[in-house]
Amino acid sequence: MAAIYSLFIINKSGGLIYYKDYGSAGRMDTNDSLRLASLWHSMHAISQQLSPTVGCTGIDLLRADTFDLHCFQSLTGTKFFAICEPGAPYMELLLKGIYELYTDYVLKNPFYEMEMPIRCELFELNLSQAVQKDRVALLAR
Question: Which InterPro entries does this UniProt record tie to the protein (predicted)?
């Protein structure tokens, strides 16, 4: 059983630029993943405005009975969020690692246009390795 079910990357304007399904039970089609990304972007923005805490950066973790949704927002406004098993450890570190892969293999790619969907083989390859390493570390516990 995988720790991570799905991974989404949303640009600063709320557009889905990357989606990867890691074998979740209820697979989503393209329209569902676009709707979920748009909904999460809106909820994240609203939570920043409605928070009673000064300097709130939005929702970092949403817990449900059957899944957890972890979110990491970069300084540029790009959001990385993962739907994973409830109580999956170290998801914040994994999302920060994915952000590093994004900066190394996507943003430094001279053929990538900002805010556009990600189509980069090196990013895909290194992302697969990072997620697989996370799964192996989880099984070792």
Answer: Longin-like_dom_sf (IPR011012), TRAPPC (IPR007233)
Instruction: CATH number of the domain at 111, please.
Output: 3.30.450.70
pLDDT tens-digit map of 13-72: 989 999 998 876 567 788 888 888 888 888 888 888 888 888 888 888 999 998 999 999
Q: How far is CA 72 from CA 4, 31, 75, 121, 131, in A?
A: 15, 23, 10, 23, 16
* Residue 60 structure tokens: 């970092």
List CB contacts of 36: < 8 A, sequence separation 6 or more: 8, 28
Q: In what order do the strands lie in the sheet with 68-73?
A: 16-21, 4-10, 79-84, 68-73, 61-63
- Angle CA(132)–CA(99)–CA(125) in degrees, nearest 5? 40
